[in-house]
Amino acid sequence: MAQVTVRVGGYSHPVACQDGQERHLTNMATEVDKRIGTLKAMGMQFGETRMLLLAALQLADEAADLQAEVAALKAGGAVAATPVPAEPDPELIARLNGLAETIEAIAAGLERT
């Protein structure tokens, strides 16, 4: 098992991975770091956990879209080309912020119990 230290959002994180997967892990961390950099460039000033959550939600949204496209292709359906925006959609950012606040409220409620 290999050990890689990745830098995301200005913080170093040691992460274990299978031997030979170090470069792939580093590339994934770079993608997450780019997302966090974009959020910061938009003026978002949150802690590390929240920035990681927002970046993860963006990636999960894209993964869900890709899974839907794959399912449509497997079913023989046509897939409409969805352009990937060069800059994050402010409406999406607002929705993600709302979702993050809801998640934080739920987590706070669970911590109290």
From TrEMBL:
SUPFAM superfamilies: Cell division protein ZapA-like (SSF102829). Transmembrane segments: none annotated. Keywords: Cell cycle, Cell division. Coiled coil: none annotated. One of its GO terms (biological process) is cell division. InterPro entries: Cell_div_ZapA-like, Cell_div_ZapA-like_sf, Cell_div_ZapA_N. This is Cell division protein ZapA. The gene is zapA.
